[in-house]
Amino acid sequence: MIDKARGLPADQVFLDLEDACAPLAKPGARKTIVAALNEGGWEGKARVVRVNDLTTEWTYRDVVEVVEGAGANLDCIMLPKVQTAGQVAWLDLTLTQIEKTMGYEVGRIGIEAQIENAKGLVEVDAIATASPRIETIIFGPADFMASINMKSLVVGEQPTGYDVGDAYHYILMRILMAARATDVQAIDGPYLQIRDLDGFRRVTGRSAALGYDGKWVLHPGQIDACNELFSPRQEDYDHAENILDAYDWFTSEAGGKRGAAMLGDEMIDEASRKMALVVSAKGRAAGMTRTDRWTPPAE
After folding, report:
1. 3-class state of residue 188 by DSSP
2. pLDDT tens track of the chain, all 299 residues?
3. Sign of the Cα pseudo-torsion (215, 128, 145, 20, in order)
4. Closest by alpha carbon to 175, among 265, 115, 112?
5. Diameter of the chain by CA atoms?
6. CA angle (37 as vertex; 34, 38 as ends), nearest 5
7. Cβ distance 42 to 13 under 8 Å?
8. Cα separation of 18 and 26, whole Å?
9. pTM here?
10. Can you tell me the distance from the alpha carbon of 141 to that of 158, in angstroms, rounded to the nearest whole number?
11. Can you say how many angstroms the Cα of residue 51 is from the centroid of all Cα atoms in its chain?
12. Could you give the angle at the alpha carbon of 204 between the alpha carbons of 12 and 234, nearest 5°?
């Protein structure tokens, strides 16, 4: 699976020492991960390792062995089930000590914090600002559902009997606000029914529509759908680029130095430009090309 992951069109791969790794296998898995990171082949991908929950006996050895062994080839440590800012501060300090000891650049290795229970959600603002290393806040749906006694066995799906609204909207929005307030990524967690692509699309579309930056995939079959859903539609990408071109022209000397103008039947202004920048950036990151181009009116 590690070898296959190197060639998949995902933006990030994380190697897991937590839930995907049985307790008796964890010591050996650390060595496997160090070797895999040092072997290379991860070009174009963020390289991340998820260590164990800080309340367990494994976490400090996870961090020490992985970072000492492969810190030069590691981008982030993912800390699961984060409940307090103090847990992030512990990881920050430990990483700093290892970096100094090993001669690594201090502060280069980032932290991804996974929110998986009610305590973590209540503390998410403090968690997001607990360290300058924080790069990402992640929603962990399965453990979160268990932690609040949600009556469902299908991760991310609406619980039976909840027939009004979206049972996850508050959680997703709460994490998103903490991430946006601190200018870090917000990432949605996994959809475990890996053969149910329709279900994956439905759940992924929800977080993509809210403005999340991405979602975990557990199987290669989910990747194309995920990349598609987090990219703008072609018509939206074209429209965003046209807004940017038109607004740039209308605010110029040639365009009359106007702060607000009409683009077809739509009024555009500075707020329109900011919205267009978001859609344009997503499209450019996805490698999209324009199929329609606005041109200034003839004089």
Report:
1. strand
2. 999 999 999 999 999 999 999 999 999 999 999 999 999 999 999 999 999 999 999 999 999 999 999 999 999 999 999 999 999 999 999 999 999 999 999 999 999 999 999 999 999 999 999 999 999 999 999 999 999 999 887 888 888 888 888 999 999 999 999 999 999 999 999 999 999 999 999 999 999 999 999 999 999 999 999 999 999 999 999 999 999 999 999 999 999 999 999 999 999 999 999 999 999 999 998 899 999 999 998 76
3. positive
4. 115
5. 75
6. 85
7. yes
8. 8
9. 0.91
10. 12
11. 17
12. 85
Q: Are 127 and 82 in contact (CB under 8 A)?
A: yes
Using an 8 Å Cβ cutoff, are 131 and 90 in contact? no
Where do the domains of the chain lie?
2-229, 234-285
Tokens for 49, please give them. 């390792």
Report residue 14 as tokens: 């994380």
Q: Is the dihedral of CA 244, 246, 249, 252 positive or negative?
A: negative
Q: Pick the closest to residue 238 from 202, 269, 264, 261 (CA basis).
A: 264
Question: Which of 166, 165, 213 minimizes the C-alpha distance to 189?
Answer: 213
Name the CATH code of domain 2-229 (choices 3.40.50.720, 3.40.50.280, 3.20.20.60, 1.20.1270.60).
3.20.20.60
Helix/strand/coil percent split, the chain, to 5: 45, 15, 40
Give the count of beta carbons closer than 10 Å to the beta carbon of residue 221: 12
Report which residue type is found at 196: D
**Residues 246, 276 contacting (CB under 8 angstroms):** no
20's CB contacts (< 8 A; 6+ apart) are: none
